[in-house]
Write a structure and sequence with these properties.
Strand order of the largest sheet: 5-2-1-6
Oligomer: single chain
Order of helices and strands: EEEEEHHHEHHHH
Helix content: 40-55%
Distance between the termini: 96 Å
Length: 283
């Protein structure tokens, strides 16, 4: 009987009915004491279980409304009340179910109970409500922290892309009223060495000097690109010019060492640095 009903609830694929049976004594899952609470359980897929639960809640609410209407003294009804009732009777059943579920703010997609459905006959302690609210707030906090972490990762990726392309991507997350950061495009200073730098048996010492010259030649070209980069502050520009000058001087010293060795070996000297770097001046 409805007066023996304690709770109706579903969890995922489980639908359960709790009733009071004075003939049976069992341990209550709430109070851990002796009580006559009996639980009947059925299993099916989630959508079917939820539909059964909604119909059971509606049927129980009908019982409560009928019980309450019997206790009231019938009174004369106005034409407006009759018109309102006729309008509600014409409402589709689906919208009524939606309205029923909208009233329940604690029902999640995979679980629900008579306690959370707002029934007039349900009795739930404030402690249980607080526990449920605290659990939901904890989940919300974890999701917010994870969202902030992903947003920071997206910002780093967008900044890296802007440094390579010189243009901030539209996916960069911005807060309300926030301006996108100004990012300067990085100067490409990467270089690839030739494949013929491996030592040979012809003259290992001379080839080692030649390889060292080629490496420093690439470094000079990279230093020149950095020194020629526009929109630099005065101190940075001065420092890069000095680094470029030191690299050129080092390259010239390596070439002098090569020429000294070539002269000692009876070979002609070279002028590689003056040919490969005709313009040492930086605009």
């Amino acid at each position: 009987q409805w007066k023996q009903l304690e709770n109706l609830y579903f969890r995922e694929k489980k639908f359960a009915v709790e009733v009071h049976d004075p003939r049976r004594i069992s341990v209550s899952r709430r109070t851990f004491g002796q009580s006559g609470l009996v639980v009947q359980t059925w299993y099916a897929n989630t959508s079917l279980i939820k539909s059964i639960w909604v119909m059971a809640i509606s049927q129980h609410q009908f019982y409560l409304d009928r019980k309450q209407s019997k206790a009231k003294i019938p009174s004369a009804r106005s034409l407006d009340d009759i018109a309102m009732d006729l309008t509600e009777m014409g409402t589709p059943k689906v919208s009524k179910l939606v309205t029923l579920e909208a009233k329940n703010q604690l029902i999640m997609a995979s679980n629900g109970s008579l306690i959370s459905s707002g029934s007039q006959d349900s009795e739930v302690s404030e402690e249980q409500k607080k526990e449920k609210i605290m659990e939901l707030k904890k989940k919300e906090k974890l999701l917010q922290e994870k969202l902030l972490q992903k947003v920071e990762e997206l910002k780093k990726i967008c900044l890296r892309e802007a440094e390579l392309t010189g243009k901030m991507p539209k996916e960069y997350p911005l807060a309300a009223g926030e301006e996108p950061p100004q990012v300067r495009r990085r100067v490409g200073t990467a270089f690839k060495l030739d494949d013929n730098l491996l030592p040979s048996e012809e003259d290992p010492t001379l080839q080692d000097l030649e390889s060292n010259f080629i490496i420093h030649q690439k470094l000079v070209e990279a230093a020149k690109k950095l020194a020629s980069e526009p929109d630099l502050c005065k101190n940075v520009k001065k420092k890069r010019k000095q680094e470029y000058a030191d690299a050129v001087k080092k390259l010239q010293e390596i070439e002098n060492s090569i020429n000294e060795y070539r002269i000692k070996s009876g070979k002609k000297p070279t002028q590689k640095s003056t040919l490969t770097l005709p313009g040492e001046r930086i605009p």
